[in-house]
Amino acid sequence: MITPLEVFGLSPFGQRSREALRALRGDPWTPKTRFGLSSLGILKPRLSLPLWLGLPARGRLVPIYNLFNHLRPPPEDGWSVRKTRVRDFRGGNLSYDSHNGTDFAVAPGTVVVAAAPGRVLRVSSEFDRGGLKVFVDHGGGLVTTSNHLSRALVSVGERVTRGQPIALSGMSGIDGVLMFPWSTPHVHFNVWLGGEYVDPFAHDGEPSLFRTASPTPHDGHAIDETVEPTAWDLAAVDTAIATCRVPAVQAELRAIEHWGQRAMSTCTSGSTTRRASRRGPPLMEGPCPRQPRLDLPFRAQDFDGVWFPDEAR
């Protein structure tokens, strides 16, 4: 049983309060979060209220709450939850300005699984940046992250198989607290390829990163899959860290012993907004081609596939 503290990621309270203020007011290196009347378009009570009550919103289908925005502003402009320049992979507007992932709307406590085999690269919690997160390196420059979790079920360095439970969902982070109960509880699913945020859905002729045209869960049958960890360019990682304008963050990054963990921490938004420049060589070695490798990050016993609420109108 998960607790409200876990669902919203409120502990330790003092640290969470400081992180919340940074999101709302900004700091010398981080612009404040940008809101507006258009932000109200994100709220979907028809989805949120059943899910907060633990009820399925669409039977055995997972509603897509928001999609990857292909017109995102640069991160140095600050995180924007407004809907001003938005285009999802279908040419629609199921997203908001700074959205860099896919939101799967599920009730808190839903089991989240590995979308592909790999190794747990990082487990972190930042109240202003997605709450509790689990990062999995699937090799070949492909990394996925499940955000807004309530509880991690794996630890850093652990090997995971396709469909293995890695966490329980929640709504941790400032989003869930400020807009409860109108903000829909969801798993914000990030995909990195070559060290950059990418849309896992097929777009502009590119292949999908999902193994099926519409993502479905792994069926549970054992698959013999060997994963070689992503090869990081150590010199490029060092160069990126050296551009960090905050000495404490720079020291924190350099203190991470495992290169993969250090590189992934350097890729995330919390450090990129603090770097003097995001431009530089890729942090990963070799080509990172788009290939269909991912499944829906939930169990087949819970869901069959996904549903786009805006297409039901």
Structure notes:
This protein is α+β, with helices and mostly antiparallel strands. The protein folds into 2 domains: 4-227 and 289-312, Glucose Permease (Domain IIA) (Distorted Sandwich), CATH 2.70.70.10; 232-283, no CATH class. It has 8 helices and 11 strands. Strands 1, 2, 3, 4, 5, 6, 7, 8, 9, 10 and 11 form an 11-stranded mixed sheet that branches. A hairpin with a 4-residue loop joins strand 5 and strand 6 (142-152). Helix 5 (234-242) crosses helix 7. The chain is globular, with a radius of gyration of 18 Å. The mean pLDDT is 90.
Helices and strands in order, then pairings?
Layout: H1 4-8, H2 13-25, H3 45-52, E1 61-66, E2 102-105, E3 111-113, E4 118-126, E5 131-137, E6 142-152, E7 159-160, E8 165-169, H4 174-179, E9 186-193, E10 196-197, H5 234-242, H6 247-254, H7 259-267, H8 269-272, E11 305-307
Parallel strand pairs: 1-11
Antiparallel strand pairs: 1-2, 2-9, 3-8, 4-5, 4-7, 5-6, 6-8, 6-9, 9-10
Helix pairs in contact: 5-7
Major sheet description? 11 strands, mixed
> What is the number of helical segments per DSSP (H or I, 4+ residues)?
8
Examine the coordinates and then state which fold CATH places here, giving the name of the CATH topology of the largest domain. Answer: Glucose Permease (Domain IIA)
- What's the end-to-end separation, in Å? 36 Å
Structural class: alpha+beta
Could you list the spans in which at least 5 consecutive residues all have pLDDT below 50? none
| The top level CATH class name of the largest domain | Mainly Beta
Number of strands: 11
- What is the name of the CATH superfamily of the largest domain? Glucose Permease (Domain IIA)
**Shape, please?**
globular
